[in-house]
Amino acid sequence: MSDFETAKSELKPRPEDVDSPAAIIKAMYATISGPAGKRNWQRERSLFLPGARLIPIGKRIHGQQGLQLLTIDEWIDGVTDFFEENDFWESEVMCHMDRFGNMVQAFSTYEARDLQDGPPIARGINSIQVVFHDGRWWIASIVWDNETRENPIPGEFAPYLW
Which CATH class is domain 3-144? Predict the structure, then answer.
């Protein structure tokens, strides 16, 4: 059995999490959001293609900064203590998706909060690559950067204000 087949057999996603690009992105945000405490890391892992990469490129909320190339397990190891000690809610406020065949590129603008209904403590953009394979959607990679004064979210990716 290939590494992919072995990993795939161990990753049992919720069917509703992987039935569309929008659903898998929604599930990704749901798995990292919540009050201080443990997260459902098996659900999070089930969203990612074996070998997927998570690539932060700027300052992160929990203090690390700079470009990193992480596996899902390396990312989980790096954020577990922060999530266990801090309330953290991240939600998509706008998404632009382009699709060609079995691949999707999504620019997902997010806001992070330390209170579920509180003001944003950070905003940024996740560049999410999603692929359709073996009857379901998978996250292949995520590259993200937080908004700063020097790096504001461009108008075409900013949520509309009414």
Answer: alpha beta
